[in-house]
Write a structure and sequence with these properties.
Alpha-Beta Plaits; alpha+beta; single chain; about 30% helix; four-stranded antiparallel sheet
């Protein structure tokens, strides 16, 4: 079975996350994306503390698709340095993991 990977990303708005999520799933770079609105973030940028509301997306994909997924997200993201973190899975429901592998392009 393919190596299944979760890709954690943040966005400035729900509409941006939905648009990019649509792109990822319709082009078979991800089997599914989960979009969670209204996350509060505190981080340092340009040496100042920032307080923002962000939208989290988790994309379910294979490790082979991560580089292309990152390219698409970066090309369509409004942030200067978008948060995109790939997290390999170590297990889970085998039927679900097989479904993910079958939904992304080979």
């Amino acid at each position: 079975m393919e190596n299944i990977t979760l890709v954690y990303m943040t966005f400035v708005s729900k509409s941006e996350a939905v648009a990019i999520g649509n792109e990822l799933v319709s082009h078979r770079l991800a089997a599914c994306v989960n979009i969670m609105d209204h996350m509060n973030s505190i981080y340092r940028w340009d040496d100042e503390l920032q307080y923002d509301n962000e939208v989290v997306m988790i994309a379910k994909t294979t490790s082979a698709m991560v580089p292309e997924l990152i390219e698409i997200v970066k090309a369509n993201h409004s942030a200067e340095c978008p948060c995109i973190v790939s997290i390999p899975t170590t297990g889970g429901n085998p039927d679900f993991l097989t479904w993910i592998a079958g939904e992304v392009k080979k």
